[in-house]
Amino acid sequence: MRKAKHVLQAALILVFCVSAALPLRAFAVAEDELVSLAKTSKKPVIADFGLGFCMQCKKQAEILNEIRESYGEKVIIRMVNAGKETDLMKRYGVEWIPTLVFIDTGGKVVLKKVGPLGFEEIRAQLSRMGVKL
After folding, report:
1. pTM for the full model?
2. How far apart are CA 76 and CA 83, in angstroms?
3. End-to-end CA gap in the chain
4. Residue 94 pLDDT > 80, yes or no?
């Protein structure tokens, strides 16, 4: 049953994403890296689960680049390749892309949101986590 679910998810991802010859914007992330990064850096982490050819994921990446420019070193943003990091997706309960996972400085997931979030929505969540512009 699980295998069928993952096959269905992969098929749906292909339906919703447009294929293009673009480099992947994600990289391998060790399973514990996101939590330990938040704890050791004392900065919140935003994990962006997506694929380089998914149009909604590209839109999310553009917004996260704006966040990175605005917040600088106050927040850590990690892109996670949903096609390769399936164990990490399972760990965080990610079933659809794009999905953003917000991790506080204590290593706790405080929000998991499916679909592209706008700049103001991300800013509001960061503010709730104590991060100001």
Report:
1. 0.77
2. 22
3. 46
4. yes
